[in-house]
Write a structure and sequence with these properties.
Elements (H helix, E strand, L loop, with lengths): L5 H23 L7 H17 L23 E3 L9 E2 L2 H15 L6 E8 L2 E8 L2 E7 L5 E3 L2 H4 L17 E9 L2 H13 L8 H9 L4 H5 L4 E11 L6 H11 L8 E4 H15 L7 E8 L2 H7 L9 E5 L4 E13 L5 E12 L2 E7 L3 H7 L6 E5 L7 E5 L24 E3 L6 E3 L6 H12 L11 H9 L6 H4 L4 H5 L6 H15 L3 H7 L7 H11 L2 H6 L2 H4 L7 H12 L1 H12 L21 E5 L7 H10 L3 E3 L8 E4 L5 H9 L2 E3 L1 H14 L1
Parallel strand pairs: 2-11, 19-20, 19-21, 21-22
Antiparallel strand pairs: 1-6, 3-9, 3-10, 4-5, 4-7, 7-8, 10-11, 12-13, 12-15, 13-14, 15-16, 17-18
Helix pairs in contact: 1-2, 3-9, 12-13, 17-18
The structure holds 2-(butylsulfanyl)adenosine.
2-(butylsulfanyl)adenosine binds next to strand 3, strand 8 and strand 11.
Length: about 675
């Protein structure tokens, strides 16, 4: 066996130190600095060197234990059986190799049955029951010794305090993951932020922080869930497959993933992986991969375990949603309503399946919260189709030279003053349509599909028209002639004529589209529709008091104020009359004295995974039609919308005899209401 060179030894020692440092942050201090993917890479590098030079492996290597020493504040607990970790697979080749290893060891050519379930991104716990009573709960700690967190785990609603049912073993230790679902995480962070405290960077950190509270009353107020996925020490009989065990656990009262499934061979695993990867962004909690386990317990026993992981299971990780990259600079963009948004320009990085080079920093408070400086290494997160975010700064990697981020005091586009409205975090340019940036955004919005729908007037064209001073306000669009337009880049005679024709066509519009196109703050399509049907004409709307405006569904005091202010502004009134002089028109309709929305008085609950939209969109659409959307099923629920893999809410609705809509029925309902209104 080759002897390691001094440079290999040096690299190995450095890796060890880094891994130790980051395990301590993660396991002991709840202050994860680097993304999991980065940690996995460090660990994989270490394992690779150790495989090549086994003589280097000392008992203190991170490969010889998982995690770090438990904190001293909680009592220590020695696990009856060690809590193992899992080997990772990062692609289908790794999965094929795993399946082959399993069959080779079992000396079989036959296809293996695997149990598949999500890999929850939370905190592993062990919960011990004696005669069906919850007796003790512990964290994993270093795998053999954890912390006693019984009081905290008892506060989690999905953890049964007493098991119910038949054939409950005299002693039963279950293992599972405690995590915080997205909805609860968002609410918790809102509360934390409104107190001026530091927000949690992700649901896992929030779950970890909540579990290690010494005061379990704090834990009780946190929205935690616990899904169990295996058993540890048992005195008594259990079924002979993993999935049958999960079923009895579910029968005894545990939360067990309803996404669990049986598949055959590596091909079945691959298919399940694709299936769940497609649903990942819509799931109500974070998962970071899939765990595949040999389903038959006798085969699991034959396969056994190597030091830190069983040979019969593997975690197929999803592409990382968090990665590290460097902040090159910060630019300030001006939005349609003048909001100044700092945008991070990043060293391009592949994360969440795409290359990311920009991320929104939202506002000045966010920069302060992150304590961010130009040159810093940052953790970037991109989940599904969500806009990339900077979650945190890797303080341990701050370069010697970093630069403060100067928030401008004047608009970077028009040099007008900036203002910060009391109680708002957003800083705005006061330039209005004088500001070229706001003008561009306002005109793009005016021309967009759900507004005036001016076909062919794309973003690039609007930018040129504003930059060349051809267009000051939306009204100027209707004064353009084909000759002017054909002077612009990439515009021939024909496309110029087409655009003129499209402008003409757009003149005949509807009041609600026109109102939406004006870009009044907080007046989206649904509100514009309600305003149009309530007042019937622009004149009636303009004459309405703030009080009268609030009789319109969906319009509260804030929106009413924005609408009233908009129609008091002389500039806006001038634009409106110029638009009408230039031919923009719509039919007035009879005002509705009382506006009854089609789903007024109805209450819906949404559960499971929807394929054609996310649950939030479904919620907003139902609400725009007047419905209430509640979080839990009760006798007052009008109907339950049940997507794929609906769980306990579906059974409750069935028990209560409540109407159940599948996704197709929901889409139909939305369409019908839309057509009727
Ligand atoms: S089974 C011996 N199943 O992943 C097998 N683990 O990297 C032990 N995890 O410590 C684990 N979801 O915290 C298993 N469905 C699942 C899981 C899961 C999440 C976590 C668990 C474990 C870690 C291993």
């Amino acid at each position: 066996m080759a002897k390691p060179s001094p440079s290999v030894i040096e690299h190995y020692e450095a890796l060890k130190q880094q891994i130790e440092y980051h395990s301590k942050c993660y396991y002991l201090e709840n202050s994860q600095e680097i993304p999991d993917a980065e940690f996995d890479r460090l660990f994989a590098d270490l394992l690779q060197i150790e495989a090549q030079y086994p003589a280097l492996v000392m008992p203190d290597s991170p490969s010889q234990r998982v995690g770090a020493e438990p904190l001293t504040e909680f009592e220590s607990v020695t696990h009856e059986l060690p809590m193992l970790s899992l080997d990772n697979a990062f692609g289908s080749e790794d999965m094929l190799a795993f399946d082959k290893r399993v069959r080779d060891r079992l000396k079989t050519e036959e296809a293996i049955e695997y149990a598949c379930e999500p890999k929850f991104d939370g905190i592993a716990v062990s919960i011990l029951y004696r005669d069906g009573n919850l007796q003790r709960a512990a964290t994993r700690g270093d795998g053999s010794t954890g912390e006693n967190i019984t009081q905290n785990v008892r506060t989690i609603q999905s953890v049964p305090l007493k098991l119910r049912g038949d054939k409950i073993p005299a002693v039963l230790e279950v293992r599972g993951e405690v995590y915080m679902p997205h909805e609860g995480f968002a609410k918790l962070n809102q509360t934390v932020a409104s107190r001026g405290d530091k927000v949690f960077v992700n649901p896992r950190n929030a779950a970890a922080g909540s579990l290690r509270q010494l005061d379990s009353r704090i834990t009780a107020a946190r929205p935690l869930e616990c899904c169990v996925y295996s058993v540890g020490y048992v005195e008594g009989a259990l079924p002979d497959t993993h999935l049958a065990i999960l079923q009895v656990l579910s029968d005894w009262g545990f939360l067990v993933s309803d996404l669990r499934q049986s598949v055959m061979a590596a091909a079945g695993c691959e298919e399940y992986y694709q299936f769940l990867a497609a649903q990942r962004a819509q799931l109500p909690y974070d998962i970071d991969g899939i765990v595949f386990k040999v389903n038959r317990i006798d085969l699991q026993q034959q396969l056994g375990a190597v030091s830190r992981a069983p040979r019969w299971a593997i975690a197929h990780k999803f592409p990382a949603q968090e990665e590290i990259t460097q902040l090159r600079e910060v630019e300030f963009q001006v939005g349609r309503t003048g909001a100044i948004t700092p945008v991070a320009r990043l060293e391009p990085i592949f994360v969440g399946g795409v290359t990311v080079s920009n991320a929104s920093l939202h506002n000045r408070d966010e920069i302060e919260r992150l304590a961010l400086k130009v040159g810093d290494f940052v953790v970037v997160r991109r989940a599904g189709d969500v806009i990339p975010q900077i979650v945190s700064v890797v303080h341990s990697r701050r370069p010697e030279q970093v630069f403060d981020i100067e928030f401008p005091s004047q608009c970077p586009v028009c040099q007008s003053d900036l203002v910060k409205v009391e109680g708002e975090t957003i800083i705005r340019c006061t330039g209005g349509l004088v500001c070229a940036a706001q003008r561009k955004q306002a005109i793009k919005h005016f021309a967009s599909r759900h507004a005036m729908d001016i076909e062919g007037l794309g973003d690039k064209l609007v930018e040129q028209l504003v930059d060349l001073d051809c267009v000051q306000s939306p009204a100027d669009l209707y004064r353009l002639n084909a000759e002017q337009i054909s002077q612009l880049e990439r515009m021939g005679k024909k496309s110029a004529e087409n655009l003129i024709a499209a402008l003409q066509t757009s003149c005949a519009t509807r009041l609600d589209r026109f109102l939406y196109a004006l870009g009044i703050r907080e007046v989206g399509q649904a509100t514009a529709k309600n305003l149009a049907s309530y007042f019937g004409s622009l004149e009636a709307l303009q004459a309405a008091s703030e009080e009268a405006l609030q009789s319109v569904p969906d319009v509260g005091p804030v929106v009413a104020k924005f609408i009233a202010e908009f129609f008091c502004n002389a500039n806006n009134l001038a634009v409106i009359s110029a638009l009408r002089e230039n031919g923009v028109h719509w039919p007035d309709v009879a005002p509705a004295t009382s506006l009854e929305l089609p789903l007024e008085g109805k209450t819906y609950v949404i559960t499971g995974t929807l394929a054609s939209m996310d649950r939030n969109t479904a919620k907003e659409q139902l609400q725009a039609l007047g419905a209430k959307v509640a979080g839990s099923v009760s006798a007052k629920t009008s109907a339950l919308v049940a997507g794929a893999n609906a769980g306990s809410k579906l059974s409750k609705a069935e028990d209560l005899g409540i109407d159940i809509l599948d996704e197709a029925a929901l889409v139909n309902l939305l369409k019908e209401c839309e057509e009727a209104s």
